[in-house]
């Protein structure tokens, strides 16, 4: 999978791994976010090795069962949404994507009918 040039400067971190968990790609924001853990050098390593328990087991289960996981977190007063999802190539499960982006404090919410 090639995420393409649009992801390089995307307002959020994008990390892509294969179905075994090997990190294939990271955009610039992901590299910056994980600089203390190796940044770009994480490409080629296993995503599961980057997570402590119980996160590691949860992520492994999501990957094995091809399930998505969406949640919000707050770190140092900054709210973020985390989207973890399987990705497919021509209908075949090929790995997992994680996207993390900040949520503005005044983010509007619309209900459409």
Report what the structure shows.
The chain has 113 residues and is an alpha+beta fold. The chain has a single domain, classed as PAS domain (Beta-Lactamase, 2-Layer Sandwich). The chain contains two helices and five strands. The chain has a five-stranded antiparallel beta sheet.
Distance N terminus to C terminus? 36 Å
Helix-and-strand structural type? alpha+beta
The general outline is: globular
Question: Quick one: biggest sheet?
Answer: 5 strands, antiparallel
- As a percent range, the share of strand residues is 35-45%
Mean pLDDT: 92
β-strand number: 5
Please state the second-level CATH architecture. 2-Layer Sandwich
In total, the number of domains comes to 1
Within CATH, the superfamily carries the name PAS domain
The number of helices is: 2
In short:
The protein has 113 residues and is an alpha+beta fold. The protein has two helices and five strands, in the order E-E-H-H-E-E-E.
Q: Which helices and strands, and how do they pair?
A:
Layout: E1 13-18, E2 23-26, H1 28-33, H2 55-64, E3 69-75, E4 78-89, E5 92-102
Antiparallel strand pairs: 1-2, 1-5, 3-4, 4-5
What key attributes describe this structure?
113 residues, alpha+beta, Beta-Lactamase, globular
């Amino acid at each position: 999978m090639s995420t393409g040039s649009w992801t390089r400067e995307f307002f959020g971190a994008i990390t892509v791994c294969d179905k075994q968990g090997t990190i294939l790609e990271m955009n610039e924001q992901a590299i910056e976010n994980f600089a203390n853990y190796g940044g770009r050098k994480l490409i080629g390593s296993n995503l599961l090795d980057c997570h402590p328990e119980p996160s590691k087991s949860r992520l492994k289960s999501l990957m094995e069962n091809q399930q998505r996981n969406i949640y919000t977190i707050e770190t140092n007063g900054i709210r973020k949404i985390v989207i973890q999802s399987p990705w497919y190539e021509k209908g075949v499960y090929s790995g997992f994507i994680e996207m993390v982006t900040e949520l503005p404090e005044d983010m509007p919410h619309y209900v459409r009918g």
